[in-house]
């Protein structure tokens, strides 16, 4: 009996909470499933909210040499040559206005910012809580945030959780900038109209692949546009409820090889 043809030409996977387990590793089973999918003719693209400086070391550790979409769609990055293919920056004047309007509404915010470029620093302002182990430049005040091109801002509020902060930010400044929740403690201000779908469509065009030929995996609300673009969206069991609500299917968690479970079935191996 001949194997079932793999139905997609592109497999797009989020990184944290999706491809990576909690210890920032990828299981052998998931690696093998992705290898089998690529052997069957599909390309694999990592699509992450992390900017390149917070993604590059992970890709290098994985031995990933393809195109990655980073910075919430702002950056299309060639991991094999360590260079940016495209990059979108945040209008700093507009971002500053949005930040002022938001703080006038809900009070002071803790702030971080991602500078543009392969080696762009992530600047961490006073009070901003960041995941341990990620490279960052800590600031005594946030004046330096505005002195060089940025891809995005990160905001935290002392009294609002991620969902509440995202909601009020969208209501207050959604006509100026986009606001997304990308993970626990990670609410971001982006250029208006930018999303993972933006970067993925650019990367797919470079590979000659269409949305109708793409399957996407994710776990957070920032993956919603990617699911809207791709033909088939798969949410992890650990995914946010907003993403599960729009997913075509829900697989097992990132700790339980959720990507492999789906790929093996599609490959006819499950």
Summed up, what is this model?
The chain is of the alpha/beta class. It has helices at 15-19, 28-39, 52-62, 92-106, 162-173, 196-207, 224-229, 241-246, 258-267; strands spanning 10-13, 43-47, 67-70, 75-78, 83-87, 110-115, 122-124, 137-138, 150-156, 178-183, 186-190, 214-218, 232-235, 249-250.
What does it look like?
By secondary structure, this protein is an alpha/beta fold. It has helices at residues 15-19, 28-39, 52-62, 92-106, 162-173, 196-207, 224-229, 241-246, 258-267, and strands spanning 10-13, 43-47, 67-70, 75-78, 83-87, 110-115, 122-124, 137-138, 150-156, 178-183, 186-190, 214-218, 232-235, 249-250. The protein has 9 helices and 14 strands. It is globular and about 55 Å long.
SSE topology sketch:
Elements: E1 10-13, H1 15-19, H2 28-39, E2 43-47, H3 52-62, E3 67-70, E4 75-78, E5 83-87, H4 92-106, E6 110-115, E7 122-124, E8 137-138, E9 150-156, H5 162-173, E10 178-183, E11 186-190, H6 196-207, E12 214-218, H7 224-229, E13 232-235, H8 241-246, E14 249-250, H9 258-267
Parallel strand pairs: 1-2, 1-12, 2-3, 7-8, 12-13, 13-14
Antiparallel strand pairs: 3-4, 4-5, 6-7, 6-9, 9-11, 10-11
Helix pairs in contact: 2-9, 4-5
């Amino acid at each position: 009996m001949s194997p079932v043809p793999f139905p997609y030409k592109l497999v797009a996977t989020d990184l944290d909470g999706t491809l990576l387990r909690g210890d920032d590793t990828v299981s052998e089973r998931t690696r093998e499933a992705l290898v089998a999918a690529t052997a069957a003719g599909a390309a694999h693209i990592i699509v992450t909210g992390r900017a390149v400086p917070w993604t590059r070391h992970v890709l290098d550790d994985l031995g990933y040499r393809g195109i990655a979409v980073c910075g919430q769609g702002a950056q299309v990055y060639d991991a094999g040559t360590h260079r940016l293919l495209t990059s979108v920056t945040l209008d700093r004047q507009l971002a500053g206005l949005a930040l002022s309007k938001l703080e006038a509404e809900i009070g002071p915010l803790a702030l971080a910012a991602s500078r543009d470029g392969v080696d762009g620093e992530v600047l961490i302002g006073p009070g901003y809580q960041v995941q341990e182990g990620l490279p960052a430049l800590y600031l005594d005040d946030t004046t330096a945030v505005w002195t060089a091109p940025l891809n995005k801002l990160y905001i935290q509020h002392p009294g609002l959780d991620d969902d509440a902060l995202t909601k009020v930010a969208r209501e207050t400044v959604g006509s100026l900038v986009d606001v997304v929740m990308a993970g626990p403690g990670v609410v971001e201000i982006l250029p208006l109209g930018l999303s993972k779908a933006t970067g993925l469509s650019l990367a797919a065009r470079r590979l000659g692949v269409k949305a109708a030929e793409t399957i996407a995996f994710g776990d957070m609300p920032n993956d919603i546009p990617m699911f809207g673009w791709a033909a088939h969206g798969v949410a992890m069991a650990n995914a946010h409820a907003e993403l599960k609500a729009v997913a075509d299917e829900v697989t097992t968690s990132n700790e339980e090889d959720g990507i492999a479970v789906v790929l093996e079935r599609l490959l006819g191996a499950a």
